[in-house]
Specification:
Shape: globular
Number of helices: 6
Largest sheet: 8 strands, mixed
Order of helices and strands: EHEEHHEEHEHEHE
Structural class: alpha+beta
Strand content: 25-35%
Amino acid sequence: LPVELKTYAEAVNVGHQALAAAFGFTAERWFATMVRPRSAVPAVAAPQDVEVVAYTSDRQEDARKARNDAFRDHWGSLPSTTEGWAKFVGSEFFRGDLSRLVVDGEGRILAFCLVTVNHDDWEARGRSNAYIDLIGVVRDRRRQGLAPLVIAQALQAIADADIDEAILDVDTASSTGANTLYEGLGFVAEERSVALVRRP
């Protein structure tokens, strides 16, 4: 398999970037941390053939497969293994009650918005927050309004839990136009970072 090394630097940390460049790393991708303070969540209509449900543990393997399908064409993404996925959804931080899935009439997962909460972050930021780790739509159901639907439902769950803000990270060059979608749902870029890559 091809080998590559990656390092991530804050956009304002030019020293980190210069050091990486000196060792042969090249800037390839830019990311933004986006924040949405709690406020009214826009209503997003669901297509007739789907429903939105909370994540439950019996959907663990189906969710992993949906994640791998949705991220097959994303920059820098590798498939989630059974073991790695179990650690993620089984961690103390994962919140199935705040996470949302879009499923069809047969129970197939079409889209997902998976959320974690780390209370240690609350003191550092001075307010409560939930982190949206993963958002995706399986490839054969893209461009059907499922992403804004599942995100809006997760945002409502976060607000109903009396959490002050939602946070996510986005690849600003993603072909899915994710950053535009998030801006439309009220997220605002707070910090920016760059991915620097070296290939032997």
